[in-house]
Automatic annotation (TrEMBL), chains A, B:
Chain ranges passing through the membrane: none
Top-rank lineage group of the source organism: Bacteria
SUPFAM superfamilies in the record: Homeodomain-like, Tetracyclin repressor-like, C-terminal domain
Residue ranges flagged as DNA-binding region: 28-47
Keyword check for Manganese: no
Keyword Cell membrane included in the entry's annotation: no
Protein name: TetR/AcrR family transcriptional regulator
GO terms of molecular function: DNA-binding transcription factor activity; transcription cis-regulatory region binding
Pfam families in the cross-refs: TetR_C_33 (PF13305), TetR_N (PF00440)
Organism in which the protein naturally occurs: Streptomyces reniochalinae
HTH tetR-type domain: residues covered: 5-65
InterPro entries in alphabetical order: Homeodomain-like_sf, HTH-type_TetR-like_transc_reg, HTH_TetR, MT1864/Rv1816-like_C, Tet_transcr_reg_TetR-rel_C_sf
Key words of the record: DNA-binding, Transcription, Transcription regulation
DNA sequence: TAAATTGCCTAAAAGGCTTAGGTAATTTCT
DNA sequence: AGAAATTACCTAAGCCTTTTAGGCAATTTA
């Protein structure tokens, strides 16, 4: 009997595609087995359990998102960097809704520490460096940006903005604009 | 045999409690039946299906949250109203994490239209009235507030802010403060 | 080519969702 | 109050997902 050529990597990758197609919370070991035309139990040679699969998808998504954000940030500073970073975030969520949802999958502390999650915070701080904020404003600002980006993307994904003018890209630009203004207003005074 | 005295209302109420205890996505018809010491099939006289139960919990939560927000808003205006509204939101999510998660359950358009969701948007607009914003800034601002509140609460719930100083209530106050400043800066010029 | 490993299989248990159809408790009507 | 109608909960059964145990065949290694 020919083998299907499964591996943890391939399964996680296919799981991510499945998530984008049907939603992260509908990703199931069974559905994945069907996709490879293989019996369910076969997947358990590669995955400890269903939680393991979801964790894998989450880590993959965090990695991809971090890479996109890093690319977007390269060679930019100030508002330019802020906008590029914000767009990388929103675009990724738009193109890969299931993967984006996966980035919210709760990771146990050890896994989280080894994930790309830290790079996200690092990049946000890098953007803020251009605004030269004093502590503790900088930390507050990291959290504000995280909240706005995640909140916006998440409300947009659940259709919150879809039935009223102006359309949501317009609001997105407005939000980035005013976040920039807010951050500029916080610049540390010259010594 | 004595009856348990089930009803759709009671089931949804108990489902909401269960959600707060174990998480909204772990709310299950079976668990609910166990809680009432009744066979699973019995619940199907009161609920169409599991989706129906979750929808009910979502509607309950939206209702409760709207009521709290309305109470918080009563007799306040300007920054005072903004802070009270924001706190109502955050406090509710802190006290009732499962119910809060339920407010994000996707409702079909007809159900959503009949829900308390509309009142939330109305209240946000009421707060903004105090800032006297021109259109389309007002709509953008409604969305910004929604994004920040939801994003913050959601990141806080998933433990995003818990392992670093300053603590998250401090950031929350800071965020409300600077949102107020942002909104004030947008006030329509005197005619 | 024989031995060791690996990849996928069958089988089965446990738990969740849902429907169909039945019996006992309660309410309503006479 | 007693009969009739309704309601509340039950048993039974089918289907789906997760997970474990143990087996055989394909592949890799020696």
């Amino acid at each position: 009997m020919a083998r299907a050529g499964l591996s943890k990597q391939r399964l996680i990758r296919a799981g991510a595609e499945l998530a984008d197609e049907v939603g992260f919370d509908r990703v199931t070991v069974s559905a994945l087995a069907r996709r490879f035309d293989v019996k369910v139990a076969s997947l358990y040679s590669h995955l400890r359990n269903s939680h393991d699969l979801k964790t894998g998808i989450a880590l993959l998504a965090l990695e991809e998102l971090a890479e996109r954000a890093a690319d977007a940030l390269a060679g930019r500073a100030g508002k330019d960097a802020l906008a590029a970073f914000a767009n990388a975030y929103r675009d990724y969520a738009g193109e890969h809704p299931g993967r984006y949802a996966a980035t919210r999958f709760p990771l146990d502390p050890r896994t989280a520490a080894a994930s790309a999650g830290g790079r996200h915070a690092q990049m946000t701080r890098a953007i803020l460096r251009g605004y030269d904020l004093p502590e503790p404003d900088q930390t507050h600002a990291v959290r504000l940006l995280g909240s706005v980006f995640h909140g916006f993307v998440s409300l947009e994904a659940s259709g919150g903005f879809s039935h009223s003018a102006p359309d949501s890209p317009e609001t997105w630009a407005w939000v980035v604009d005013h976040l920039d203004a807010l951050l500029r207003s916080l610049r540390a005074p010259e010594p």
